[in-house]
Amino acid sequence: MLTIRDLIRWLPESVIELYEALGIDELYPPQAEAIERGLLDGRNMIISVPTAAGKTLLAELAMLRGALSGKRSLYIVPLRALASEKFESFSRFSKLGLRVGISTGDFEKRDERLGRNDIIIATSEKADSLIRNGASWVRRIGVLVVDEIHLLDSANRGPTLEMTMTKLMHLNPEMQVIGLSATIANGREIADWIKGEIVSSDWRPVRLREGVLLEDRLVFPDGEIQLENRNRDPVLNLVLDTVDQGGQMLIFESTRRNAESMAKKVSGALQESGETIELAERLSGEGKTAKKLAMCLRHGAAFHHAGLLPEQRRLIELGFRQNVVKVIACTPTLAAGLNLPARRVLIRSYKRYEAGLGTRPIPVMEYRQMAGRAGRPGLDPYGESLIMARSESELQKLMDHYVMGEPEDIWSKLASERALRTHVLATIASRFADSVDSLSRLMASTFYARQQDPSYLGETIASVLEFLVRSDMIDKDLTPTPLGALVSRLYIDPLSAMVMIQEIRGIRRPTVLTLLHVITMTPDMELLFVQQSDNWLEDFISEHSSELGNEKNFDWLLREVKTASMLMDWINEVHEDRIEDRYSISPGDLVRIAETAEWLMSALHRISKHMDLGVTYLAERLALRIHYGAGDELLQLLELKGIGRVRARKLYQAGYRSLEDLKAADKSTLSEILGPKIAEGVISQLKEPGVSA
Ligand SMILES: Nc1ncnc2c1ncn2[C@@H]1O[C@H](COP(=O)(O)OP(=O)(O)OP(=O)(O)O)[C@@H](O)[C@H]1O
């Protein structure tokens, strides 16, 4: 047995006391193993253990040991929301005199100031962009922690993570590398890649019983439980059984729509209380989604998916932690990282739709991440996870494949053309490689090259190099052109830049709609789906055909134009609720798509300036309009803190059209329009030096 106090060999008293104050005394068995294998002696390590088995604590100890001997740590997470969560949690190290920093936001920044911190938290995309933009401190990292390292297997995010790790290891040969992962089969292979140890364990702080739900039977490998049949729907019987025992439940659904309708159904079976009503009343927003969510919350149920606004999600999470929300029906995104354990987990659907592939069963690893959410350490005696079957034969299949099955291997996804296009350009533009030889050497040190056929990687790299030369982003001798360097810094796919240049050049008089359409034509844009009720799109397209880019595929055109039209409504100040209804989206989608559009429009502004495309000013203004969701004439007023598009419009309509107009206004009139508090804030900003019309 190893206690936290035993770590005094490596860590000062202040660190030991910090953890003891949190009630941590004995180390969990996988933690003890990691220490024994040299985690605090600087060994590289893959720690592959179930959820809540204390991985983060190990990373913290290694970073603290590093920081106290003057080494900087970088902690890479997959999602921005997780970066904030970790930032809040690591901020407690300020008591030890350490500085913690977080890097989110603008991709083009170099962020030299971040380097003053002892611990820096960033997403893999942000870490990648910091390397591309030449932040000097990325060459002086002592400890690298990669959270959720199994995401190397993700087609979307894996290649960026892999290249970032490869480059950081290259720049910092002495750096300690720690990868935290869910249970995976080939952790040894990743450990070999980083030249480290592997700690792999199934140990969990709360016992987990895994089984299958078939009608009202909970079937476990070692026995069965029969639910009381109070309702025709077995899911509701399971919910009532859980809640009656004082427990909470997570229900994983495959789509947002299913999550919403399940939450609604569950809310019909649960009771309102003073607490649930109070929670529902704290929910902001008037749109369809907010109303649906409020109705569920009133009964202690909720749905949770990527279409919600961050503040809506936070309210649900808070309600769940306070045990006011009893049941959350969610999409699998909740399993990825969020720390919201429950007594019971139900995986209602183990199939998922994947574009181009149809409906497929989820991997065992994903099943385990969802199942692993069952059981709250210190609160539940055990957790129960159930996967739902519809027949006896399916029950057996699910039992064999998921409950008793082994998770899959992790496979590098680096060799895709799209990933390599971006990463080969970045590697050349940031002078990581200045010849085919040095590029090949770098690529030979990736996880892909270790794991899979390097000749395939070689072929794809050759075709990508050809594309980059043809697009004038690099020369034949692998020197970046100014355009190539710019595109890499802007952090867009080189193909996006090509689309922008070609389309803008192909249109005689580009308008606002043209620019919006062009950014939706790039591979970096997330597009809306087209539904039957969208038959207005065809009329819209024929009416505006001269303003649109040259999209040959009609199905894509419909999706692009629908997305562009949504952005047009947004910048024309159409109310969010109307946009939500008209485009059948949730508020979180609007926020996300607008963010992507703003980034791409700023990139178009920079490329236009560089290439003289003639839309520089228009794109610059449009990026701002997308940022605020407002008309051109409001941009000046929107620079003021506390003034959003609705208040800016009110001021404008009252005749205040510039900061000069506002300076001349009297306090009582402004108070009438904005309310006294906001008016005061505006007046004090106007008095600040440097605020001028
Ligand atoms: N040895 C320990 N004794 C008591 N509590 C511990 C111990 N180690 C970790 N914990 C606590 O258990 C909880 C989960 O730990 P931690 O966040 O490190 O797990 P994790 O494996 O990183 O989880 P996840 O997979 O969700 O990221 C935390 O509240 C942490 O403080």
Automatic annotation (TrEMBL):
Example of a GO MF term: DNA binding
Origin superkingdom: Archaea
EC number: 5.6.2.4
Stored InterPro entries: DEAD/DEAH_box_helicase_dom (IPR011545), Hel308-like_dom4 (IPR048772), Hel308_SKI2-like (IPR050474), Helicase_ATP-bd (IPR014001), Helicase_C-like (IPR001650), Helicase_Hel308 (IPR022965), HTH_61 (IPR046931), P-loop_NTPase (IPR027417)
Name of one Pfam family that matches: Helicase_C
Catalytic EC class: isomerase
Catalytic reaction(s) noted: Couples ATP hydrolysis with the unwinding of duplex DNA by translocating in the 3'-5' direction; ATP + H2O = ADP + phosphate + H(+)
Keyword tRNA processing: no
Gene Ontology BP annotations: DNA repair
Residue intervals of the Helicase ATP-binding domain: 36-202
Binding-site residues, ATP: 31
Keywords: ATP-binding, DNA damage, DNA repair, DNA-binding, Helicase, Hydrolase, Isomerase, Nucleotide-binding
Annotated Helicase C-terminal domain residues: 234-426
Keyword Phosphoprotein: no
Description of how the protein assembles with itself and partners: Monomer.
Family per similarity comment: Belongs to the helicase family. Hel308 subfamily.
Function of the protein: DNA-dependent ATPase and 3'-5' DNA helicase that may be involved in repair of stalled replication forks.
Protein name, UniProt field: ATP-dependent DNA helicase Hel308
Organism, as annotated: Methanothrix thermoacetophila (strain DSM 6194 / JCM 14653 / NBRC 101360 / PT) (Methanosaeta thermophila)
